[in-house]
Amino acid sequence: MDAVTGRELLDDFKWRGLLAQSTDEDALIASLDAGPVSVYIGFDPTAPSLHIGHLVVLLALRRFQLAGHRPIALVGGATGLVGDPSGRNSERILNDEEVISGWVTGIRSQLEAFLVFDDSANSAVMANNLDWTRSLTALELLRDIGKHFSVNQMLNKDSVATRLNGGGISYTEFSYQVLQAMDFLELFRREGCTLQMGGSDQWGNITAGLDLIRRVEQGSAHALTMNLLMKSDGTKFGKSAGGAVWLDPKMTSPYAFYQYWFNCEDADVIAYLKFFSFANHATIDDLAVQVLEHPAKRAAQRFLAREMTTLVHGAEECERVELAAAALFGLGDLSQVAETTLAGALLQVPRATIARSMELPGLIELLAATGVVESKSAARRTIREGGAYLNNVKVTDEAFVPTRGDLLHDRFLVLRRGKRDIAAIEVS
RNA sequence: GGCGGGUUGCCCGAGCGGCCAAUGGGAGCGGACUGUAAAUCCGCCGGCUUACGCCUUCCAAGGUUCGAAUCCUUGACCCGCCA
User: Fold this and answer.
1) Alpha-carbon distance A133 to A59, whole Å?
2) Do the Cβ atoms of A45 and A130 come closer than 8 Å?
3) Distance from residue A93's CA to nucleotide B61's C1', rounded to whole Å
4) B78 C1' to A252 CA distance, Å
5) With contact defined as beta carbons under 8 Å apart, do A39 and A209 qualify?
6) Tell me, in Å, how far CA of A417 is from C1' of B60?
7) Degrees, nearest 5: CA angle A352-A326-A321
């Protein structure tokens, strides 16, 4: 582990396509080789959970820890209240303080799962920038910090410049870079942190911190940014039909999470593996060959889905989800699937329950009840288009009503919309 | 502060007072072809007890009219020019 040199670490980042920009590379490598570097990345609470878009930089923190460095995960309890203008062309809507502090708690525990906290020299550290901004007065901010910032430079930052040419920017968001620069300075002082990483849109905010450290402490620190992942067709990564793919199992089920990765296109899967996987170069190169030679086997997709699901949800959950997929997609005839297997599989997909005492409703009702379609109109449409299945058998009659005889093991109905959207009805 | 322009469905964007649930593009969804892939072709794309029927939509609230996304008034927000 300690055998990983700064050069090797950066070369790996380059090979993976992660490295976007860094401050002087030789100096950065020299500092990495001089001993464990304390490196930080900030995560603002903009939602109740992190999503897979956050994973790239979060895993970078983990890569640094594996290489012997000391990761600091910072939750933006303060910056989240203000709103980062980077990468946005319109002002954010401010959320209530209580809401944000709830998000901070959730995100904090998510971050902890990816890093190692122990007694070692490179144990991870959690920080919250609210700790050093809460008691800061406006006058202190203006006199002690603000004096070191040139508005001319602030206006030149990409995040601000684009907004000045477009939808405008509030003083609140304009000040964001000051807060983030303060964070870097604060961590430099408290934790000896000399490296900040982030997505490529964070370059301006990070360098603002470098300047501040130089001016106030005459210190030197480094910046490293990572590429934002794009799909091969140029669309944004990480969105599925239901919106973002979340790490919180209550927001994106482990089953859906696995399926997201598993369904990734051939043209993207190797880039994803490089971005997200901890597999070594030889393994990934080998998977690339397999995609070319036996694309239908989806070896790379399966590898990726398995690694990501295990990482985020654990090995046991991953296995359950894989068994579910095998049961639901494997055999044409669902009645051949054993009851316990089927019951376990259906636990993973969206489902609705109806009382045994009730008459079975029509297929339209059932589809809508599980949420695989948004409305009864949509359910009708799906049936009309030939995209509705009951127990893997296509149903084309809009008025179709299942009977008791359709129940698998006397309790389940497996509904499907299109090729891969599966849901379940349980009679109990 | 003054003058002018704007606010349309997930996004961009058209829209003559009736023929507007609203052109077009993108995204999304279904089908065919495949491999739970891509590309391509076809179809769908507000809701409802599927109804050439009804209901809720075109920033908000009022108004004019037999009838308004389209006209008027007020308000909110955005953009531009001038001070």
Assistant:
1) 27
2) no
3) 24
4) 35
5) no
6) 39
7) 60
Give the percent of chain A with pLDDT over 90. Answer: 67
**What's the CA gap between A210 and A198, in Å, rounded?**
14
- Report the distance from CA of residue A378 to the C1' of nucleotide B65 in Å, as an integer: 37
Mean pLDDT calculated for residue range A364-390: 92
Q: Which A residues 264-293 have CB within 7 Å of strand B?
A: 264-267
CA angle A279/A108/A80 to nearest 5° reads 115
Reported ipTM: the value is 0.83
- 141-180 on A, CB < 7 Å from strand B: 165-168
Summarize pLDDT for A118-138 with one digit per residue, the tens. 989 999 999 999 999 999 999
Per-residue confidence (pLDDT) for residue A362, from 0 to 100 = 92
- Residue A97 banded pLDDT, cuts 50, 70, 90: confident
Cross-strand pairs, A73: A41, A126
A354 has pLDDT over 80: yes
Q: Which nucleotides of B are covered by protein (CB under 7 A)?
A: 27-32, 34-39, 43-51, 78-80
Indicate the pLDDT class of residue A162, thresholds 50, 70 and 90.
confident
User: pLDDT tier at A203 (50, 70, 90 boundaries)?
Assistant: very high
